[in-house]
Amino acid sequence: MQIARSLQAMRQRVGRTQAEIARRAGVSVGTVNRYMDWRDPARLTVPTIGALADACDATPQERAALVELVRTQADGWWVRHAAVPDWMDPLLSFEDLATYESVYCNHLVPGLLQTRAYALALHRAQEPRAAAEEIERRVDARLKRQDILKRAPDFHLWVVMDEAVLRRRVGDTKVMAGQLDHLQDLSQRPGIDLQVLPFDTGAHAAGAGGHFLMLGRDDVHDPMGSMAVVYLELHRRGVYLDDPEDVQGYKITFDYLRSQAANPARSLDLLADARTEILK
After folding, report:
1. Using an 8 Å Cβ cutoff, are 184 and 64 in contact?
2. Is 113:165 a contact under the CB 8 Å cutoff?
3. Residue whose C-alpha is closest to residue 53's, from 61, 81, 34
4. Sign of the C-alpha dihedral, residues 34, 21, 145, 108?
5. Quick check: 224 and 155 in contact, CB under 8 A?
6. Could you give the CA distance from residue 105 to residue 138 in angstroms, rounded to a whole number?
7. How many whole angstroms separate alpha carbon 35 and alpha carbon 38?
8. Given 79, 117, 159, 254, which is the most exposed site by the fewest CB atoms within 10 A?
9. Cα atoms found within 13 Å of the Cα of residue 237, Cβ hemisphere only
């Protein structure tokens, strides 16, 4: 999926047809189409992906990233590297095709729900040596990613948020108050479910782990078009799991978290309480 999306983006960037790409790469149009269709399960090869990348005028960095993806495609997991361009980020690829996303966060407000002010304060704290222009670029990309929330009802987001997220101060009082107001507004939108996991819950199903999200797409008419993947948030990178046993394990964990979290009405009360405490 990531390979196909990357090739499609590069082809569009240079404005060439599949036939032109095929001629430049010395392969058939059918081969080009197969590499650009993420649902084709056939094995990909390093020489062919290299030729296709060259035919799309890929940079050395882009070509190396695609070759590495082909070399590791059988592993069943991907590691996002800071050197890989944003449009080749697998998380964006998965979200672009997902119809639902389930998120558990225990530390910070997830990216899809952040305000610009919160995201700026967070990036400044996490990357104190980064240039202001770079931070602005990353925040812009994060806000652009939130466009998927406009796809409701074709996209459904369910978030279980530890109460600690509401109490952790990111930025000043104004930033936090604005972020909590934003969460209250989002929780009223169709296609978004937000639950808070209160402190008085005690030990819970995800107590031994950290932030994770599940992305999925169920296609009853074309099983090859279905997908399910888990994304684990790590320091400066993310790990993706697509083994059915792993995915099922996280689905069960999230089901327990939903049952242990406060219902939507009480979750709104907890958001309001946190806002009141911050403004004191």
Report:
1. no
2. no
3. 61
4. positive
5. no
6. 20
7. 7
8. 79
9. 10
CA distance 204 to 212: 15
One-letter identity of residue 242: D
Cβ 162 vs Cβ 197: under 8 Å: yes
For residue 106, the tally of other CB atoms under 10 A from its CB is 19
CA–CA dist 261, 277 (Å, integer)? 21
Separation of alpha carbons 162 and 165, rounded Å: 6
Note the pTM of the prediction, 2 decimals.
0.75
Residue 84 contacts residue 236 (beta carbons within 8 Å) = no
Comparing CA positions, the residue from 5, 249, 213, 237 lying closest to residue 113 is 213
pLDDT tens digits in sequence order for the chain, 280 residues long: 778 878 988 999 999 999 999 999 999 999 999 998 876 667 789 999 999 999 999 999 899 989 988 887 765 444 444 444 555 577 887 888 899 999 999 999 999 999 999 999 999 998 899 899 999 988 998 898 899 999 878 899 999 999 999 999 999 999 999 999 999 999 999 999 999 999 999 999 988 888 999 999 887 665 556 789 999 987 767 788 888 899 999 999 999 999 999 999 999 999 999 999 998 8
Provide the token pair at 211. 């932030």
Neighbouring-strand partners of residue 214:
102, 230
Let me know: does 66 contact 9? Beta carbons within 8 Å: no
Q: What is the CA radius of gyration of the chain?
A: 21
